[in-house]
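User: Just a sanity check before I run the rest of the batch. Below are the structure tokens for the first item. I only need the designed sequence back.
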């Protein structure tokens, strides 16, 4: 399955958006981070967990604002 994830970067403390939103296509068949996931909420959780745990001391966090299945 493929999903389009729309996400933004936010300041970790103020929660203010930084920059523009970004779309990324996730293919659950080829991306091991998302293998077996079929629900948008699970894609959102995995995406945010990956980016936000990568560098827990960064000034920014990633927040998913949309996940839609893509053909």
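Assistant: Here's the designed sequence for the first item:
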């Amino acid at each position: 399955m493929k999903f389009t994830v729309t996400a933004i970067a936010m300041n970790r403390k103020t929660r203010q958006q930084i920059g523009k939103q970004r779309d990324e296509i996730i293919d659950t068949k080829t991306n091991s981070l998302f293998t077996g996931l079929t629900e948008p909420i699970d894609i959102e959780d995995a995406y945010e967990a990956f980016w936000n745990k990568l560098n827990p001391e960064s000034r920014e966090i990633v927040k998913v604002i949309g996940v839609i299945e893509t053909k």
